[in-house]
Each structure stands twice: as C-alpha cells, then as structure tokens.
Amino acid sequence: MQESTFSVIPLLAVLLPWASLLAILAFPKRAERLRLWLCFLGSLATFGVVLSLLPGVLDGNTYTIKLASVVESLEMRLTVDTLGYYFALVVAFLWMLATVYSMSYIDHKHNRFFAFMAMCESFMLGCAFSANMFTYFIFYEMMTFGSYPLIIHEETTMARRAGYKYLVYAIAAGTVLFFAIVAHYFWGDGQLGFGSYGVLSLEFASRAALMTVFFTYLAGFGVKAAIMPLHGWVPDAHPAAPSPASALLSGVILKAGAFGIIRVCFNVFGADLLRELEVYVVMASLACITIVVASVFALTQDNLKRRLAYSSIGQVSYIILGLAMLAHDGALGGVMHLAHHALMKGCLFLCAGVILVKTGKKNISEMAGIGYQLPITMICFSVAALAMMGTPPSVGFVTKWLLGSGSLQAGLPVYIVVLLASALLNAAYFLPIIYIAFFRWEGDEVDEHGERHHPKLVFGKEADHKLVVPVVVLAALVVIVGIWSNVPGFPYSLVSKVVNVIFP
Amino acid sequence: MKKVVALLFIVALAVLLLYVVANMPPMGDPENPTATHVISRYLERAEEETHTENVVTGVILNYRGYDTMGEVTVIFCALAGVLAVLGRERRGVIHAFVDRSEVPSSVIVKTMVRFVVPFIILFSVYTILHGETSPGGGFQGGAIIGGSMIIFTTIFGLYESSRRIPLKVRASLEGAAVMGFFLVGALGLLGGGNFLTYAWPRVARSLQPSLVVWLTVLVEVGVGLGGAMVLISILFAMIREEEEIAPAP
Amino acid sequence: MRLLHNYHYAAAMVLFCVGLYTVIVRRNIIKKLIGLNIMETSVFFFFVSLGYLDGGIAPIHAGAADPARMVNPIPQALILTGIVVAVSVTALALSMVILLYRQYGTLDVDRLMREEEPEAAEGGKEE
Amino acid sequence: MGTALNLVLILLLLATALLAVNARDLLAAVIIFSVYSLIMALMWQRLQAPDLALTEAAVGAGVTTVLFVITIFKTRRREEE
Amino acid sequence: MGAWRHFPIFMITLPLLGAVLLPFLGYARERWVPYAALLPLGTSTLLGLLLMGRIPADGFLSYHLGGWEPPFGIEIRLDYVGLFLMLVVCGITFLALVYSRRYIGKEVSGGQRTAYYVLYLLLSGAMLGFVATGDIFNLFVFMEILALSSYALVAITGNRNPVRAAFKYILMGAPSSIMVLLAVGFLYSATGTLNMADLARRIAESGYTEVLIVSYILLVVGFGVKAALFPLHMWLPDAHSIAPSPISALLSGLLVEVCAFALVRITFSVFTLRSSDLVMGTADAVGVAAVAAVLYGGIMAILQKDLKMMIAYSTVSHVGYIFLGITAFTAEGLTGAMYHMLDHGLAKACLFLCAGNFIYLKGYRRIEDLKGAWSQMPWTCFAFALASLSVIGIPPTAGFISKWYLILGNVKGGKWLYAVVLLAGSILAAVYCLRVIYYMFFQAGKEGAWEESWRDAPPAMLAPVWTLSLATLFFGIFSSLLIPSLLKAAAYLL
Lengths: 504, 249, 127, 81, 494
What we know:
The complex is a heteropentamer.
Chain A (H helix, E strand, L loop, with lengths): L4 E2 L2 H18 L5 H21 L1 H5 L4 E9 L2 E7 L1 H24 L4 H20 L3 H19 L5 H31 L19 H18 L9 H7 L2 H27 L1 H7 L2 H21 L3 H21 L3 H32 L10 H4 L1 H15 L5 H16 L3 H26 L25 H19 L7 H12 L2
Parallel strand pairs in A: 1-2
Antiparallel strand pairs in A: 2-3
Chain B lengths: L1 H21 L10 H4 L2 H12 L4 H9 L1 H22 L7 H4 L9 H23 L8 H27 L2 H7 L2 H15 L17 H32 L10
Chain D lengths: L1 H21 L3 H21 L3 H25 L7
C-alpha cells in the first residue's frame, strides 16, 4: 500500500466508545437519563470522529497508528484505508442510530446493555481499522464475546439457548480462524498485512497450502457471515436478542464475517491468485445455495424476526457471490451491498422492534391491520422490504443491477437466474407482510350493523420519537442512497475507488 | 490382574536396567569417566584447599556446601511438615499434651541407660568435631545424639526426656544447621568472595587456613546441633499422644 | 561379561525393582514405605559402587595415604545428602500414616482410597 | 576372598529385602529392614565409604527404624487382609 | 562485576532464611508472621526485577558458589529464560502469600499457621533455587525441598481428605524423586561430572549411549510425575483440588511448570541438540503423551462437578500444552512454552484464588453452587472470567499470545497434527470455562444461596486476585516486552 500518515484519529475512534462506558460507571444510578444521553453522545462523537476522516480518505490518504508489537512482523496496528473506512462508516452510523433506539427500547439492566454496546462498537471499529489479519482477529474475537451479552440480554430461556448456540459456533469458528492465521503466517512468509493486490503468492507456498489457508479462512469467517452450512446460530440469535441488537447483529456483526472474507479475497489473496486457485467456484456455489435455500426457509417462518434473520442469511451471501464473480461490477455490487443491506435490514429490524414494543406481537399472522396502528413504521417497513426485493429506486436495486452486470462480465449468466429467483422469493416472503399489515384486519372493528370497518388511521401516536426517528432515517437513506450513490461518503464513492484498483 | 501388570512392568524395567548395567563402564576401573574427569582435583588438593583430611567432609561442606545447605533445609522442611501434620506441644501447656506414664523397666536397665547415654553423647560430640579428619561429621553426630535420646525416651518416657531437652532449647536450635550455612555464606560475601566462600579473599593469605578450619567447625557444629534437634523434635512429635483422638485398634 | 563384573550395579538395580514393585503392588502403606526405603538405599548403593576403585582406600588423608588410590569421594558426599533426604521423606510420610490411621482406621491403601466423603463416621472402621 | 564376601553380602541384602517386603508382621518387616540397612552399612564400609557406613548405621538402621516402629505402635502391627 | 552478581543467591536464600527465622517470630508475635513472611519474597521479587536488565537474552550469569569454578563446585547458571521463570515464581508466590493471610487464618488452626508460612517460604525458595541451579545433583536437592514442602502443605489442615491426597502425592512423588536420583547416577557414571554445562560437553563425547538414553528416560519419567504429564498425573487432581486455595494456586500455577522447566533445561542444556538423536525418540513419546494430556485433561475438566477439581484437570491439560511447546524443538515452540508458563501461572493462580474466595465466604465448592454468584461477588466473578479467557486463549489475554507461539512452533516443526490438538484443547477449555462463567453471570441462584447483603471477599483477598487477572491482560497486550527476548533466548538454548 502507499505510504500512510501517522494519525491518532483511528485510535481515538476506537477509544471513544469507552468514554460512554466510563460515563456509565461514573454517574450514579439516579442520573439514569443523563447516562443514556452520554452514551448517545459517545456514539455520536465516535461517528463524528470517523466522519472527520472522510475528506482525507477520499483523497486517497491512509492513516496509521501502531498499538503494540509482538515481534517485528506481528504487530497490533490500526490503519485507515478506503475499504476499512467504508466499513467503519457503516458501523459508526448504524451504531449511533441503534443507540438512540435503545435509549427507549431497553427497559432493564441498562448498564449492562449500553456498556457492552459501547465495547462492541469499539471492537467493531477496531476490526474495520485493522492493518493486518492479526489485529483483525484480535478485535474480531473480542467483538464475538462482547456481543454475547447483547444476545442474551432478555435472559429468557430462548435467549440463553440462543446465546449458548452462538458461543458454540463462535468458539469453534474462532479456533478455525486461529488455525487459518497461523497457517497464513507460516506460508505467507511471516506477513499478515493487507496488500492492495494480495500478499500471498504461489512462490512461497504450494497450491494445496494456499487452498488450506483459504478454506480455513472461509470456514472461520463463514460462521459469522452465515454461509449456509454454518448459519445455525443466526435464526436463533436474532429473535432472541432485543431489536436494536438484532439490527446490529444483522446489519454489522454478520458483516464483520463478510468483511473478513472481503479482506481475505482482496487484500490477502488478491483476485489473480483466487482465479489461479479456482476457489471462487466453491465460493460462488456456496453463496448461490445459501441465497436460494435461506429464502425458502424464510418463507416458512411465522416469527417476523426469524423471517428477517433468514433473509439476512441470504442477503449476506450476495456479498460473497459478488466477490466470487471476480469481475469489476460484481465486486462493486457485493461490497456496496455490505452498506446497503445494513441500511435495509437495520430498518426492518428496528420496525420489528417498534411493533413488538407497541403491540407485543411477534408473529406475522397476528399483525393484521397493524399498518393503521403504526402507519409511519409500516410505511418505512414497506420501503425497506420493497428495496430488499430490488425495486428501483432503492439501494437493493443498485446491488442487484451491479451483480447482474457483474455476472455478465464474468461470463456466467447463471448467476442472474439465482438473483432473479432470490428476488422472487424475497417478494414472496415480504409482500405478504405488507399485505397483512395494510389490507387485512381482524373482526374486532365490527360495528352494530355487522359491517367491518377499517381501523382508524392514527398518525402521531405511534411511539416514542427515539424509536421512530432511526427507522425513518434509515428508510429515507434506503431511497436516497439508492438514487445518489456517488455523494461523497456514500458507498459508491468509496467502494469504487477500491474496486477500480483491483479490477481496472 | 493389577499385580500381573505391575510384575510385567517391573520385569521389563529390570531387564532394561540390567541391560544398561551391562553397557556401563566396568566398576572399579581407574579408566572410568568417574575416575578420570573431575576427581583428581578433589583428591590431590582438597587438603590444602579445604583443610580437611577427610576429603568427603571437604566435599560436603566446602566444594558442594550449597548441596548440604539444601540437605539441612530438607530436614528442616521435614520437621516443619511433621509438625504441621501432627502438631506440636505448645509452650506452657507441655504437660497436658505429653504422655507422663513411665515405661516400667528394671532398675538395671535404667541405671545402664543413665550411665551410657552421656557417653554416647560424648562420642557424638567427638564425631561432630572430628569430621575433618576422620569418618563422620555434623549430621552423623546429630543422628547419634538423636539415637541416644531414643534410647533414653524408650526407658524413661517422653515426659522425662522432654524435660531434659525442653521445647525452648529445641525450638531455638532446630534451625541451627541452616543458619550456620547462611552465616558462613553471608560471611563469605562480606569477606569479599562468593556465597559460601570459606577462604575470604579480603583476609591475608596466612590467616586463611585457620579461618577455613574455624568456619568448617562452625558449620559442623551447626549441622550437628540442628540435625540432632530436628530428629529429636520429629521423634517427640510422633510419640506424642493426644488421648482424645487415640485410635481404636 | 560386563554384567557379571558389574554385579554391584546389577544387585542395586534388582533391589531397586524389588522396592518399586513393593511400592506399586503392596497394599499396606507401611510396606510401601519400606519399599520406598529399599529403593532409596539401592540407589545409594549404586552411587557408592560407582565411586569404588579397585584396591582403593577411603578418601582420608591420614598418614601417607596415596591420593591416586583413593576411591571417589563425590558419590559419597552426594549420598550423605541422599540419606538425609530419604529419612526426611520417611519421617513426613510416617507422620501422615499416623494421622491417616487416626482418621480412617486402616493402613490398607485400597480401603483408604475407596472411602468417600469426609462426612463419613470419624474414627475407626471395622476391619 | 573379597569378591566372595561381597557376593555373600549382596545375597544377604537381596534376601533381607525380600523378607522385609514379604513379612506379614509389620514389626518383623521393619526389624528385617533394619538388618538390611546394617548389611548395607557393612557393604559400604567394604566399598571404602566409612562416612556413609556410619551414617547409614545411625540413620538408616537407627532413626528410620525407630520412626517405623513408633508408627507401627501407633497404628497396627499386622497387615490387613 | 557489580553487586548484582550476587542477586540470584539472595533471591534463593532469603526465603529459606525467612523460613528458618519465622518460627521465632511465631513464638513471640504470631500475628505478625503473615506480614513478616512477605518481606523475603518481596525482596526477592525486587532483586529479580533489578536483575532483569542485566542478563542478555543470549547469555547467562554464572555464579560459583564458594568460589569454586564450575566442574568442581556448584554453579548457579541463570540465563534469561531462567530469570524470567524466577520472576514469575517470585511474583505469584508473593501475591498468593498476600492472599493467604485471611484464607489461612480461617482454614488452618492456630498452631499450624506458623508452620504454614515456614513451609510456604521453603517452597518458594526451593522453586527459585531449582530454576537457577546449574548442577544436576543440586537440582535433585532442591526438588526434594520442593516436594517435601508441597506434600506437607497439601496436608496442612490435617483433615481426612487433605492428608489422604497428600499421601497419594507422596506415593507417586517419592519414587519419582528416586528415579531422578538414579538417572543422575547413570549420568555421572557415563560422564564423571554433575555440572550441567560440563555434562553437555561430556555427553557429546561420551560413548555410553545406552546409559545416556536410559538416564534421559528416567529423568523424563521422574520430572514427568512431578510435572503431572499425562499418564503420571494421577496425584494431581486430588492434591490440587483439596489443598488450601493459595497452595493450589502455587502447585498448579508454579510447581508443575517449574518441573516442566527442569525438563527443558535437561533436554536443551544437558542433552543438547547435538546429541538430539539420543533424545528424539523419547521426545516423540513425550509429544504423544502431551497430546493425550491436552485432550484427556480437557475432557475430564468438562466432566467435573467440583470447581477446584475442574481447574486441576485443566492444569493437566495445560501441562500438555507446555510439553507440546517443548517437543516442537523450535524457538517459537519453546517461546510459547515459556510464555505459557507465565500466563498459565497467572491465570491458574487467579482461578484457584477465586475458587478460594467462594470457599472462604460461602464454603461453596461445586460449580452448581455458583449460579448467580455474580450478583453478590461481582469482583471475584469478573476476575474469574478474565482469567478464564486467558485459559481459553482468547485475545488480548496472555493465553492467546502463548497459544499463538505454541501453534506456530509446532507448525514450523512440521507437526500440524499437534497444532490441531492445541486448537482442540482450547475448544475444550472454552467449554469448561464458559460453563462456569455462564452459571456465574447468567443463571439465577438457588433460593437463599446468596444472602441479600452485597458482600464480596475482603480487599486483602481481592487485591491479589485482581492483580493476577489484570496481569494476564497486561502480558497479553504488552507481550512485546518479553517475547523478542524470549525468542532470542530460546534460539540460544537451541
């Protein structure tokens, strides 16, 4: 990579969330509201700090700071490059919204939830800014364990079981990943850093060795990224966790796995080496299977959050599929989908949270007529759901378009079939929700003449603003980003820089 | 079953060890590694370097004095362990804990023991002090003192013998062996040498021989007294009976 | 035949094995300790034989003793330490035996290890 | 002559060791063990190690035996079935 | 040629001297004994720290006791690795001693308390001497002090189970000591010397191959028992779980490692790699045993119901880690083993002391009893969690760093299978540690198990626990303080 300037800002961004942790510890229990606002300020400040790097990153600068070194080639280092910055921006933004949302949503054990929220944000930013696989792994593992308390926050039996499952998957994955890193270190000539065109090559190691490294990485990150045989924890964890946590799980934490795979593909192996090793075939087939099968599973779910979780499994595989195309547009679409999906799925989960808070309903079949009770929420939900299907003008459409174009570039139109199938299935499981919410209502409203009426459309009495505002912001962004994707700071402006380098 | 396995294992071990023995240097051969490598220095120069005619004593106290320091620490440790496990009579309440019954034995035996024990002790003092020139030394002398106290205790009982060597004396002398080594070691440091240096570099050469002799005697006496007291204390601790938890055989 | 020449060593090894066998197989803990002592003395015996020199004399400079004929003093010095260590271990082990017998009323190692909970009756068990 | 005596002593050592290990009476076993120690002391004297012979006689045959005897008096004399 | 040359001998003798003097204080002022016992250990720690910069990573300090040059006299031969371990020993013994005052005050009856501190100091001093010595017979002598004091300390309460466990320990420990002595005899017969450096030279020239091989095997078995290497570990779970908690911490966190270190010295400094074909076969066997230890210890730990028993079995597993690092025969592997000695010492000591806190306050030993412990004893529980993370090997704790090097070392040595076993071991560790953490933090306690008042252990017990657990974190984050030198020292040893 090009020479980078020393800067404390990455470290500052990673450390700022801890400030809200300190605030929680420092202020007495009585100042509950003050503490919550301080937490929000903390995440806002973090977002601000991340944002402050934007002009520099757009100019192509990278910033770096060394934390500690184990031995010369093995060090903890934070570096802001374009790709990492892109991920960090998504993280910080979504986290800020989730924090606002949680201030109203979380009703017990605030301290624990917010403390671990802040910790996880810090670790996620650490992941985004990691300069090498070693640092990435360390932050990744800490994030894994830090997110456990978020999942089991409700402490119901279901939550505990989900948490247990999560831990089992995460620990096994961590171990595999650890092995991958050791193998990488060993065969990569002691280099764990990220290079613009990859660092491994067949000069140092045999084909089989590199394949081993790649597949252990894929298996290790694949658990978080919920590639199909490894997805088991996802559908349990999402419904069990509180909604802001589910939004983060789906929007960001799953992406940490996907981001790891992106790093592995772009910066460790490099496109040429992947093409040479022919591993992309496996990646693509796994991704296709996941996309289709997960959508089918989603159809069968009645629990809203569970359906959304299965949808997430499928959607994250879009990223993998995009990478596996090894073509400019495919990669562009895949990586951009990381942010797109975060916006859409974040919005959907937060909507599910609002529904849960206001009506206590979890299952789709109970939601008849809910669109009249919660119009704003459900409109936002519909916007995001339509985007998921790929309706223009929305981010979902951008992704699908780019992926389709990528598959043509790669010369494999079969992917288009998969994409279309997925879009249809998405429609099949999202449209019924919208339909039920707006066009079916239960017989409660039967008047004295025996006629059924619409429930009244009630605006302005929805829910706490802290719940509604993030939902609306996300829904708006789903459209805005879809239309003006090239605004500085929006995905296209950042991702295209990276992809243009790799696929000129 | 377990026995058979153990037996097989032991037989295998024995065969292995005997095989090794068959491949060892022949015993008593002056060409052995043991007889050729380091040893001549000890045999030829021990007398002038350590001022002990008995080379073994020279090796124990001087060349390998650090080992012997470890050795006396081991036995001190054993005493601490025995006392930790079995407990010890406490100061002031000694009589309550000690079995006062006299062992019935004839006057002849008693008189004999009364008569013999001082001589045994005298012999042990000789053994201690002449460790440099003849077989024996601190620990052997200490063990002999211990043995004499055993005889005394078997005849006169614990009460009598613990009156002869009261707790106060034992307690203050038990560490004597280790302390002797530490004292000599520290003095060696003060004298400008390393730990446990007997011939202090800071002292005139002409004085060194007598210095070494005196220090050796100091250590010998320490080891003798300390060893004796430790053995006696262990003995007393094991004999001591606490009636309320006596076994029901 | 080296083995026959080294019969001291061989005897020490046999004694070592006898001791080890006793420690492993005998169930009585005092027997085990006797076995332990046999093991120890056998190793001491081995050491002393190592230092022996054909036609040697004790390493004491008495009169006009010839240093070249003296046996090796090092093993002797080591073994002196060894003996003290052995008696220390024995003393500590025996004191524990006394305590164990007070508490479990048995010297049989199998019964000792079989007894389960500390809440079980204090004092002796019927044999 | 010397070898013969050594051999006899070694045979005695082995015999006493086996006897000590196999005696049903623990007290007898301990006494036989003390005999074993004494023979060992003799052996060492013959191997020109007088210091050790003295020590073994005093410690091995003396102190150790006494410790064993005390223990046996405090516990039981016969092996259990 | 400054005064610092004498520091090692002071580090060793001060605790021993303290042990001898302590009974006098015990008769005069028993209350002061716990404080006085801190003095020699604190001084030793200080001296060790002062010495740290003086010994280069690829050199050693040779100290001739009594002024006799090495093959004739006894030598203290302290290299970087040895000093590192001595400091670990000093630090952990000091902290566990701080912890002891309250704990022992409750568990051990009055008359035995002084004896406890005497034995404790003897154990600490012996470990220090054991690590530092450069003479193989001296190694045996210090091992005996070590062994005797640990036997007695296990039995110190004089209750039924502790004495039985201690006796079991003796029955395995004493024959193993004799085996070591026999091995020393064989080595001496083949080389005519006892000094380790001299032995290395003479072994390389010696023609008595069979004698050398058997003596190596005997040494491995002898130290293997003390280090509780897999088939020889039977004494460990009982002794470590039943001993008073600070002693468990010492035995599990240090004693086992110190004995493993003796094997490191013997393998690399005595039977140097020049004669490696002698030892390779045995080393392979040790590797297999270590694999078995990792898996067996981990599985047994999962099956335990008693908290301390679980931690003890975890030690069996982690001894396997250390030995896998040693048998990798690479600098990275050895570095991993040494660093694992540090982090395992810290983490295990911390876990045992935490378990001690539960026993001290509530008498709870079973894992099930710890349900909901978090609500009443948060400090203890958090320290426990942190140390567990290090046991599992999760970044950024020290456990991660050591595991990294252990695996890397095995990979570099071409032993992929062992690397996989190490990973499997950490999965097992995750299972048994997280179970306890789960009970502590996320399960409701039984009715009446935890009284309403918020009462954690007293500060004098929490301070050592927290120091230890934070140290695992510290050495995980700032591993660069030690790792480069350790790598260099390991390369030098090889």
